[in-house]
Design a protein that fits this description.
Length: 302
């Protein structure tokens, strides 16, 4: 289960006791406060706190007091201008703090994004739960033949069952040994900080992750991309829905100018110009490497 009964009781108590405030609030974000959005089999994402809104971005850009806007249209236009021209500082005026429950191997990818404040559940002080990420059958895939860090064909039949069985058995066996090694019930055993090293990378951990909007959008641009690993992309997709409700104008601009946009190298621009002029351009005379040419053709055709 993503939440323990104690965590759910805490959430229910917080949502049943709303507080008045003079700071800016966003109805779309208020509905997400404390609510656990399930991700993967045992994971979750929930908003603990947030600061700022679309108007705060515009206020910072104009260096003014109050709402700093003349109309919603003006604010949206300004936000789109800022996003289009890579003006990042105004987006840093908004912040959000998430509680995330995720497999350790996903956390190790996630922590590569270093522009955030993180406090993780400590297995030196506490005992980790017997919870492991086991992929659904549709996410069991062989190694890609073209991409060393990607997946290929989905495993089928007996091979899929064999792999699932190994994952489940290894996870349970490792946790059994983890429990056996712990110093508890009168047994001397190992310290928690040592016993944890026997656990596999699919065991679940938890952390609080606080980040400003600019760096959050950078995270989402990379991790909500179709080429990102599925497991971290599942978290990014859930967070995209939350951010869209929090700062709808900023997220719409982000989608247009970052997520759904195409970045072109100087060589790609030159090839497009030559094509528009009626010239037939091949990989050999494009100035691109094989992988870049393949990616170019995926978007622009051959």
């Amino acid at each position: 289960m993503p939440l323990t009964p104690e965590q759910q009781a805490e959430i229910d108590a917080l949502r049943d006791a709303p507080q008045q405030t003079l700071r800016a609030t966003v109805p779309g974000m208020e509905k997400h406060l404390y609510v656990a959005h399930q991700v993967l089999d045992h994971g979750l994402v929930r908003v603990i706190d947030y600061m700022g809104d679309d108007a705060a971005i515009c206020q910072a850009a104009r260096v003014s007091y109050g709402r700093g806007t003349k109309s919603v249209q003006n604010d949206e236009g300004l936000i789109r201008y800022l996003m289009r021209h890579w003006h990042s500082t105004p987006f840093e005026m908004c912040e959000v703090k998430f509680h995330v429950k995720l497999p350790v191997f996903v956390a190790r990818q996630w922590i590569r994004h270093r522009t955030a404040n993180v406090n993780e559940y400590s297995a030196r002080y506490s005992i980790l739960d017997r919870e492991f990420y086991i992929p659904a059958p549709e996410h069991l895939a062989a190694q890609s033949s073209q991409n060393n860090q990607g997946r290929g064909e989905i495993l089928q039949g007996e091979e899929a069952q064999r792999v699932l069985r190994l994952l489940q058995e290894d996870a349970m066996r490792s946790y059994d040994h983890y429990e056996d090694m712990l110093s508890q019930d009168g047994q001397q055993g190992l310290a928690r900080e040592l016993a944890r090293m026997n656990l596999p990378a699919n065991v679940y951990t938890q952390w609080y992750w606080k980040v400003d909007l600019h760096n959050l959008l950078h995270f989402l641009r990379l991790r909500a991309d179709s080429h990102a690993q599925y497991e971290i992309r599942a978290y990014a997709d859930a967070m995209c829905q939350i951010v869209a409700d929090w700062v709808p104008a900023a997220f719409a601009a982000f989608r247009d100018y970052r997520m759904d946009a195409v970045s072109l190298s100087a060589q790609a621009v030159a090839v497009l110009k030559r094509r528009l002029a009626g010239e037939v351009v091949t990989k050999d005379d494009s100035g691109m490497g094989a992988r870049e040419w393949r990616e170019f053709e995926e978007i622009w055709g051959n």
